[in-house]
Design brief:
It is a single chain. The protein is α+β, with helices and mostly antiparallel strands and about 300 residues long. It is about 25% helix and about 35% strand. It has 3 domains: about 80 residues, Pseudouridine synthase, CATH 3.30.2350.10; about 140 residues, 2-Layer Sandwich (Pseudouridine synthase), CATH 3.30.2350.10; about 55 residues, PUA domain (Archaeosine Trna-guanine Transglycosylase, Chain: A, domain 4), CATH 2.30.130. It is elongated and about 70 Å long. The chain starts with 9 loop residues before the first strand and ends with a strand. InterPro entries: PsdUridine_synth_cat_dom_sf (IPR020103), PsdUridine_synth_N (IPR002501), PUA-like_sf (IPR015947), PUA_sf (IPR036974), tRNA_psdUridine_synth_fam2_C (IPR015225), tRNA_psdUridine_synth_TruB (IPR014780), TruB_C (IPR032819). It catalyses: uridine(55) in tRNA = pseudouridine(55) in tRNA.
Length: about 300
């Protein structure tokens, strides 16, 4: 008699390789974990590497709530060249000598792109315009505008400025930067807007995501490592790391799992999803405060 394979519920923190789409990584993980129930929390462009958070089995319920978290990146911005895609994947559309751009001008440009800003996503992004993906409209040569969206850039720092010469002979500047930002922020749009503000154009040439919410690169594994040994962060541990924790006794745990809306302590009001744990540390649900009561947004107790 063959033993039935069971995949544990939880998160898998992947160090995504360059050249893979987020969907490619999900497809690969379905094979590794031997389950169809795999999803991701926030995409990474094919060129980018680093932290991609996947949910396996029941942990896929966490993903929509995890996406609204802060993210951290290391990247390289090339000043002096503009591309169709705002990154190195696209065709170069303009080249301008950037050798005269001063560090003071760079710092001023970065300051203008820090804080709460309005950002227009790249036209080859996955943003939907009237139900159609922006990149699909762009590939078909359609002329369209994407409305600016509010994003928060908590930190935008330059670690190094390197003079270089592009393949077409244009003197350019390569900036090694780190960015901490809200979900939905496009780093290649920051590169584009920084270059535009400096009058020389700009695009992103490298990007590595080092953190998504509480999940950092040091916890991430490559696909090859996961193929050898699947490492799944248990769903209770994942929820405890990402959300405020509310422990309830056995009586209230039973009421909650039977669909009763519990009175919610004031300390959790307005804090978004809260992870509710029953006795023995069992994850019961994610709840949100609604009129003083706990409204379940995802239930894990069976």
């Amino acid at each position: 008699m063959t033993q039935k394979h069971t995949t544990p519920d939880g998160l898998v923190i992947v160090d995504k390789p360059s050249g893979f789409t987020s969907h490619d990584v999900v497809a690969k993980m379905r094979g590794i974990a031997r389950t169809r129930r795999v999803g991701h929390a926030g995409t990474l462009d094919p060129m980018a590497t680093g932290v991609l958070v996947l949910g396996v089995e029941r942990a896929t319920k966490l993903l929509g709530h995890l996406a609204l978290t802060e993210k951290e990146y290391l990247g390289t911005i090339r000043l002096g060249q503009t591309t169709v895609t705002d990154d190195a994947e696209g065709e170069i559309t303009a080249s301008t000598d950037a050798s005269q751009v001063t560090r003071e001008a760079v710092d001023a440009g970065i300051a203008a792109l820090t804080g709460d800003i309005m950002q227009v996503p790249s036209k080859v992004s996955a943003i939907k315009i009237n139900g159609v993906r922006s990149y699909k409209r762009a590939r078909e040569g359609e002329d369209f505008d994407i409305p600016a969206r509010p994003v928060t850039v908590s930190s935008f720092s330059v670690y190094d400025v390197r003079e270089a010469v592009a393949e077409d002979g244009t003197p350019v500047l390569d900036l090694v930067v780190s960015v901490v930002c809200s979900s939905g922020t496009y780093i290649r749009a920051l590169a584009r807007d920084l270059g535009a503000g400096l009058g020389v154009g700009g695009h992103l040439t490298a990007l590595r995501r080092t953190r998504v919410g509480p999940y950092r690169l040091d916890a991430a594994k490559t696909l090859d490592e996961l193929q050898e040994k699947l490492r799944v962060m248990p769903i209770a541990e994942a929820a405890a790391a990402a959300f405020p924790r509310w422990d309830v006794d056995d009586r209230r745990a039973k009421l909650l799992t039977n669909g009763v809306r519990l009175e919610m302590p004031e300390e959790y009001a307005g804090r978004g999803p809260v992870a509710v744990f029953g006795p023995e540390g069992r994850l019961l649900a994610l709840v949100e405060e609604q009129r003083g009561k706990a409204k379940s947004v995802a239930v894990f107790a069976t």
